[in-house]
Amino acid sequence: MEMRLEAIDSRQGDCVALVRGPLVLFAATENAPAVTRKQFLTSQRIPGQAALQVETTSGPLRMVPYTEIGDSTYRTYLTVS
Predict the structure, then answer these.
(1) Are 12 and 54 in contact (CB under 8 A)?
(2) Which residues, at least 6 apart from 61, have a Cβ–Cβ distance to it below 8 Å?
(3) Within a 10 A sphere around the Cβ of 63, how many other Cβ atoms?
């Protein structure tokens, strides 16, 4: 499935959500990591899981679909550079 970034609105184009096909993926993290558009779009699927891993400058970031969040802290939109 194609991955793309969806901005929160037209005035905040750097505040985006990662979307894969019809699914929004959520960052399973408490803190907003430093991430670029390229890092988001080159994320890799974690074998055996519905999650993706994004390699960011502050370390790996796990992106999960809504059904996988459970009790985890998450973020829908992240600011990209």
Answers:
(1) no
(2) 27, 28, 29, 33, 35, 53, 54, 55
(3) 27
pLDDT tens-digit map of 51-62: 999 999 889 999
Question: Which pTM was predicted?
Answer: 0.87
Cα gap 19→3, rounded to integer Å: 6
The rounded distance, in Å, linking the Cα atoms of 58 and 21 is: 26
Q: What are phi and psi of 68, to 5 degrees?
A: -100, 0
- CB of 79 closer than 8 Å to CB of 28: no
Centre a 10 Å sphere on the Cβ of residue 31 and count the other Cβ atoms it contains.
8
Tokens of 31: 């803190």
Residue 57 is predicted with a pLDDT of 86
Amino acid at 13: G
